[in-house]
Amino acid sequence: MSLVNSPKVEYAADGKPPERGAARRLVLRVALIVLLATAVGINVYVWIQGNVVNRLAGSDGVVQGQVLLPDGKPLANAEVFLDAAPQVIARTDADGYFVLKNIPTGEQTLLVGFEDRAVELELVVGQGSPTELGPIMYETPIGDDYWK
């Protein structure tokens, strides 16, 4: 290769070659860091909301109880779930009993639903032994079809 055909290097006034692409590299690095931080944040949020930490540690809560009508009769086939974990649903049996498993521990709102109506109950779900609620009175009026 002769000196005539060799590439030229243009120098700045101070005698140094110009910086090439420093701004682009900086923008790319910042964008990658922001993307990584966002991905980590989303994963942490999903782990917390999905109760994965409690499941891995084996410290999920269990809630059990019985749903009764105001006259003392059991309410069968009612849906029982938590406001914080609506994907975990239990149905009451013929005697009104239910068991909810694999639910987050701590303060929760329990919902008992039947025929498009629901009753709320505040409770604290503990670790280890099941949280016994005892009888829950379902005082929302229900249709006459239930008694037929």
Secondary-structure arrangement, i.e. CATH architecture of the largest domain: Sandwich
Name the helix and strand elements from N-terminus to C-terminus, one letter apiece.
HHEEEEEEE
Shape: rod-shaped
Could you give the order of strands across the largest sheet?
A: 3-2-5-6
**Total count of domains:** 2
What average pLDDT do the residues reach? 78
CATH superfamily of the largest domain: Carboxypeptidase-like, regulatory domain
Radius of gyration based on Cα positions: 31 Å
Describe this structure in words.
By secondary structure, the chain is of the alpha+beta class. The chain folds into two domains: about 40 residues; about 90 residues, Sandwich (Immunoglobulin-like). About 25% of the residues lie in helices and about 30% in strands. The protein is built from two helices and seven strands; from the N terminus they run ααβββββββ. The strands form two sheets. The protein has a four-stranded antiparallel β-sheet, with no helix packed on it. A hairpin with a 2-residue loop joins β5 and β6. The N and C termini lie far apart (about 100 Å). The relative contact order is 0.15. The model has no long low-confidence stretch (mean pLDDT about 80).
